[in-house]
Amino acid sequence: MAKITVSLIKADVGGYPGHASVHESLIKKAEEILSQGVETEVIRDFRVLATGDDLELIMNHNRGTDNEEVHSLAWKCFEAVTDVAKELKLYGAGQDLLKDAFSGNIKGMGPGVAELEFTERESDPLVAFMMDKTEPGAFNLPIYRIFADPFNTAGLVIDPSIHDGFVFEVWDIYEHKRVFMNTPEETYDLLALIGAKSRYVIKRIFPKKGSKLPADEAVAVVSTEKLYQIAGEYVGKDDPVALVRAQSGLPALGEVLEPFAFPHLVSGWMRGSHNGPLMPVSFKDARCTRFDGPPRVAAAGFQISEKLVGPSDLFDDPIWDYTRRKAQKVTEYMRRHGPFEPHRLPMEDMEYTTLPKVLKELSDRFEKVE
Ligand code: F6R
Ligand code: MG
Ligand code: MG
Predict the structure, then answer these.
(1) How far apart are the C-alpha atoms of 17 and 354, rounded to whole Å?
(2) pTM here?
């Protein structure tokens, strides 16, 4: 069977208004550029979506991950869209395009990237998750639960095809190191790492050897770019995306969505400096309004073949209203703390925001206490 690649590449190239959402004209421009990519056969099909102030390009092709033509097309697309954003004087036009010239790979240039290359099955369901106003570690809890928590994923207990568990690739994003860990055997060690979600992030999930699926083809991937490390100063949170494949030897679609029924606390929100609940929303509600948030996640479901069949707007369903209400209550509760921790992030995380500039001004006024 032929191999398929799905590339989800995203960037904030201008918000409307402020950092709330993406203007229609940016989506139109992106569609125009990616259509040229289909004509020139760089990609086979695409969809352009938006979550909060992030423009999301979903492309399928057969060129593999880290492909120069595909990345160059995405970069060209973001540049063209930035020109529109500048014309309209949208907010922070070109914000995430941190480098001037494209040099072969879009990674490290500002945009977030999640790509999966896999051998096509008879039928391939896939979910593209897009978060705004948070960081890659926000995916740790849901991805852990999908692939390793038997209370979430019934198949881990009752389906022999996933009963053996999965392999987690975890990155230390400060030290630029990675480790592969097996579940369920190393569950406690895995949790010891990924509970520290601002440092250890789940990058990919692989099937185990002997499973129905090839052990060297990732079945889930999370974007782990760190904007502040690229830019050298705070330019907003990373607003991560992820691709997760489902069914037949993998968690079912409903098991992939289930962890999002709990609106867990993530860091980001206003000025990238606050903890708040992650609220699952439909694409039409993926606008960050209250206190620039709260952090949101949208989910686009596809069947993947030569064409992208979809998206199905998976959180556009009343069953998620209960979670949203809970997220609203947690929003209210957290907001009442104002500038106090744990609503505001702890000092070590604030290092990468604008707070140190304020504190520097005060440093001369401190005197020794005997
Ligand atoms: C968070 C975010 C916003 C901005 C805030 C201030 O990721 O994008 O909360 O940090 O609106 O934005 P500036 O500094 O552009 O006025
Ligand atoms: Mg923005
Ligand atoms: Mg954003």
Answers:
(1) 21
(2) 0.97
